[in-house]
Amino acid sequence: MLEQFENIKKEISKDLKNVSDAEALLKVRVKYLGRKDGLITKLFDDLKNWDLAKKKEFGAPLNELKKLAETLVDETEKQFGVTQNTAVDFSVQGTPVLSGHLHPITLIQKEIEKVFWGLGFDIQLGPEIDSDFYNFEALNIPEFHPARDMQDTFYLDLALPKNQPGKHVLLRTHISNMQVRYMKEHKPPYAVVLPGRVFRNEALDASHEHTYQYMEGFVVGKDITYANMAWTLDYVMKEIFGQDVKTKLLPSYFPFVEPGAEMAISCLICKGKGCSVCKQTGWVEILGCGMIHQKVFEYAGYKQGEYQGFAFGFGLSRLAMMKYGISDIRLFAENDLRFLKQF
Ligand code: DAH
């Protein structure tokens, strides 16, 4: 028996001398110490059947043999096995990690928010599903008023929650629906902008989407004037499009403002010379605005004539198209990476 142990010792040493890589070393380990068929493991399995005398005589030497085998294999592993297996190979190419970035509409939204924030405006959000009361009626657009047709509305087949004024539930067509909601909850003076999505039942084409990004804003106080509005909007446009951009206010009609106006900016594509984007006029209409109608204040519960204010609303997509020179509004929602990666 002892002779057999000696032979195994010699054999291990010989095998280990011939080992040249980690794989071969693993084979040696399995040959002697493998859980199922290892030579030494098997001797331990036999041990159970030995009589007491034999156990006493050979038990200890067998244990020693096992320890020795483990030490020898471990030491050889230290020489090269470990270093070969776990060393980091700095020449191996990594897998590129794709990092995301902000959508162009979000970029311009953040930029505009920053400008308004700098002027002291609050930034708020509002509900996308609302009643026709806030979306129309409270804005001086009663039922059957032709101005409801100015905006093709998605009406929802839902019941209005109890105690909510109005008749129908709809997807907001603009964020002007937040005017009276906000006015009811806040006491002037205040200045706020509200970005978000609006929905219109429009046929899609290069400049119309059924869902698009919009920003509403209004300022209310005791002595807010049309001149404050003109200055504010001109300032914001210059911050976004550069100091060279020109702005002008044209008379317009929205039932919730009096007087109402539209702001046009000098076309950035042709620098005002005239091109297809500005229909050869040199100007592009970019937002609606005006002095808040006293009727709207009345819906908010303010006393007639106590406050004045101006309001404005514009499509963020339209601004982003101007700023980045994009000719088709549908690109914003298509999620084509070739488009998005340019921002
Ligand atoms: N809500 C209007 C629209 O969607 C834009 C607008 C015009 C908003 C005049 C205003 C405003 O606040 O005063 O076309």
Which properties best describe this structure?
three-stranded antiparallel β-sheet; seven-stranded mixed β-sheet; 10 strands; alpha+beta; BirA Bifunctional Protein, domain 2; 343 residues; binds 3,4-dihydroxyphenylalanine; 2 domains
Write the layout of secondary structure elements.
Layout: H1 2-18, H2 22-33, H3 39-47, H4 52-86, H5 104-118, E1 122-123, E2 129-131, H6 132-135, E3 155-156, E4 169-171, H7 178-185, E5 190-199, E6 211-221, H8 226-241, E7 247-252, E8 257-266, E9 283-292, H9 294-300, E10 308-315, H10 316-324, H11 331-334, H12 337-340
Parallel strand pairs: 1-5
Antiparallel strand pairs: 2-4, 3-4, 5-6, 6-10, 7-8, 8-9, 9-10
Model description:
This protein has 343 residues and is of the alpha+beta class. The protein has 2 domains: 78 residues; 237 residues, BirA Bifunctional Protein, domain 2 (2-Layer Sandwich), CATH 3.30.930.10. Helices cover 41% and strands 19% of the residues. The strands form 2 sheets. The chain has a 7-stranded mixed β-sheet with strand order 1-5-6-10-9-8-7. A 3-stranded antiparallel β-sheet has the order 2-4-3. A hairpin with a 4-residue loop joins strand 7 and strand 8. Helix 1 packs parallel to helix 4. The longest helix has 35 residues. The model has no long low-confidence stretch (mean pLDDT 91). Bound molecules: 3,4-dihydroxyphenylalanine. 3,4-dihydroxyphenylalanine binds next to strand 9 and strand 10.
